[in-house]
């Protein structure tokens, strides 16, 4: 995608050095094939001493291969098949104790054995993978359905609470403290209601294909209005906006883009220290508009930085401290991609112990007039 | 309709919500009756029985929009305010086209509801056939014959299109005007879906008319529906909602 190539500071951390991981995976693979090979050796010994012939031994080996493929990877099972066919050749195919094979039919037998072993292994490992994927998908659907159901259930009672609180306040005469409480009920219930709507919207966007309604949208207006709302709402954060671009029009679905930006602002406010600054900036460079958010507070660990955009992923630091569905960044990125843009961690700002920044880029709209 | 109290019919399938509305509106001076569905509402409503109907859009059975259409057909003079949920669907536009006078989105702020109901009644009672030659609101004065707009007594130059747009909005002062209606009336019947076209005109109009174009007080956006011309002197607070644009 062009947007991936041209994205501002889009790269996540560079890959770790390769040699360590290769050596480790070799050792791990070796450990996985050991039991299978051991079983082959034991069976070879037993069958040889019982003077069993090629066919019977072959079938017994196949049992081992099947069992191995049920628990191991394709690679380890393939190795076990190979070991089995070599033992079959060496110990049970005339001339015995040599890899030579005199009878052409025996060659056929060995090849058939190897082929069967490999095919069984392939089929079994594939089926296991498919099962795992299906189970994971089902778990995700389930989670999504629960979020949906909850959000729907909340909407009506919340609407009733908001109206009742408003009615209470208007009906006077209320003492100052009573008014204050009625105000608090209404404000918080409205806030909860908006959150619920947004959660529902996010869940729906997660499930469905995005069909953004593209219109000329002035991002400076949009971002400005949002920044103001957040600064009103989050009184213990210093929300500020910096506009570094004169032209900020993009072709986009304003509602969806707002949702994505809200996600970033929500995160910036939620996961930052009380009293700290949350800044939003808009800049333009060539054909791209870049909107950056930054905050200081809880940190995204380096090893999690590529995971945060995954569905339902919640960082270890925040999982128990702050509530969240884990869908926000996933959907935000989905929205941005549907607009031909990119959403990434701003590696220029993000440090290891304090600050976190995100960068959202969008292609600028081509002005025809 | 009783002599001193305004009467309203609350139509919603949610009993607890109906109860809250009944209690609050009664204490605000309305005489309230309830209906559980569109069909029940249509059956109850007889000419002169009620001043207003508060109708929920999402109801089982014939639903709110269809009920609105039937009520409007039988009772051209009643005030209809639809209660909707803001989720991006175009139910509100359909409701307005079915004859609703205004709408309000859940969760309803009670103050806003009362203001809207009263505004609807005001518009209904001052609905006369004569077209005023000058429209006024706050700092603005629009002289229709001379095609001139005055702001704080000074002339503001508007293009013919901007002028037509402003006239339409001001004539419907206080009421939501759907995008399609604005486009059709000002640009012509072949128009109806050119939203960004309309939006850019509204933007330039706001720059000429508003104190702070980024926070419009006169030409207010009704998300998913259209625009509403508000008189800032009206005691109808426009409560800022989460959705802007």
Task: Describe what you observe in this structure.
The complex is a heterodimer of chains A (369) and B (245). In chain A, the strands form two sheets. Chain A has a five-stranded mixed sheet. In chain A, strands 1-3 form a two-stranded antiparallel sheet. Chain A is built from ten helices and seven strands. By secondary structure, chain A is of the alpha+beta class. The longest helix of chain A has 67 residues, at 104-170. In chain A, helix 2 (18-49) runs antiparallel to helix 3. With 245 residues, chain B is an alpha/beta fold. Chain B folds into two domains: 6-125, Rossmann fold, CATH 3.40.50; 134-229, Winged helix-like DNA-binding domain superfamily/Winged helix DNA-binding domain (Arc Repressor Mutant, subunit A). Chain B is built from eight helices and twelve strands. In chain B, the strands form three sheets. A five-stranded parallel sheet of chain B has the order 2-1-3-4-5, with helices on both faces. Chain B is globular. The interface between A and B is large, with 38 and 33 residues.
Count of separate DSSP helical elements of chain B? 8
The percent of residues in helical segments of chain A reads 55-70%
The proportion of strand residues of chain B reads: 15-25%
Gyration radius from CA atoms of chain B, angstroms: 19 Å
Summary keywords:
heterodimer; A: 369 residues; alpha+beta; Heat Shock Protein 90; 2 domains; 5-stranded mixed β-sheet; two-stranded antiparallel ribbon; disordered N terminus; B: 245 residues; alpha/beta; Rossmann fold; Arc Repressor Mutant, subunit A; 5-stranded parallel β-sheet; 4-stranded antiparallel β-sheet; 8 helices; disordered C terminus
